[in-house]
Design a protein that fits this description.
The chain has 293 residues and is of the alpha/beta class. It has 14 helices and 9 strands. It folds into 2 domains: 161 residues, 3-Layer(aba) Sandwich (Rossmann fold), CATH 3.40.50.720; 120 residues, N-(1-d-carboxylethyl)-l-norvaline Dehydrogenase, domain 2 (Orthogonal Bundle), CATH 1.10.1040.10. Helix 2 links the parallel strand 2 and strand 3.
Length: 293
Amino acid sequence: MAKIGWIGLGNMGNPMSQNLLKAGNEVVVWNRTKSKADDILAAGAAWADSPKAVAAAGDCVFTMVADGPTLHAVALGDDGLVSGLSPGKIVIDMSTVSVEESAKVNDAVEAAGCKFLRAPVTGSTMLAQAGTLGILASGDKTSYDKILPLFEVMGGNQFYLGGGDEARVMKLSLNLMIATTMQMEAEAVVLAEKAGLDVSQVVEIIAGSAVGSPLTGYKKVPIGTGNYAPAFSVKLMIKDLGLAEAVGKQYGVPLESTTLTKAKLELAAHKGYGDMDFSVLTKLLEEDSNYTR
């Protein structure tokens, strides 16, 4: 049994930390909005009053937060987790942040005599609940081997990618494919709709075809019903595509479809859809095509 500190109890962090608790580990949690911890506290986790207190209590510390500025706040702030570390602990960030943001946290963790793993995940909230996420990890290999049994509780597929920030680049590469796939599906669905086909049948055919994937399967319901409750919001995808564009510039790789899709998502946010699921790209194109279901 491990004593685990966990920071960040959003749509992904909550079920991930709950799975660690269910596996018999001792879990100490903190979240900016304490009410989001109600479920896991009722299940037996302990509350800490600050990220610093989480780091002091845990043998290892996980963070799963929305973006780089939030990671810096919980890691490097006055009551941040780095100030609560003692030498030999391992910090694991499972958020999607930039290479530069990641490196700054790594430097602070290393200066405290500890190790930092980058471990962003791939998969939906449904997979987080089931403990079958994909986990992309990079950083100190010895630390990775120690944390691997905990990763296996949260994820069905484990990938160790290298000693630096390779996991950050791989995560952004996946997310640009996920986003552009939704733009392509929006175009296919709206074209078929305007030609008189039934949208519920269209999304079933797409999911079961040669271009079908787990993603197109997950998105059958929101696209088919027009209910875009957020599994992954437009705002978060805009953030991730911006990070991907920055990495593309760093390595001299034009990301043309990524830039187009990001512009469409920014338009969706401008129209008030920023907190909806990013598959709302279909609704956006319906509106641009003067089509009403």
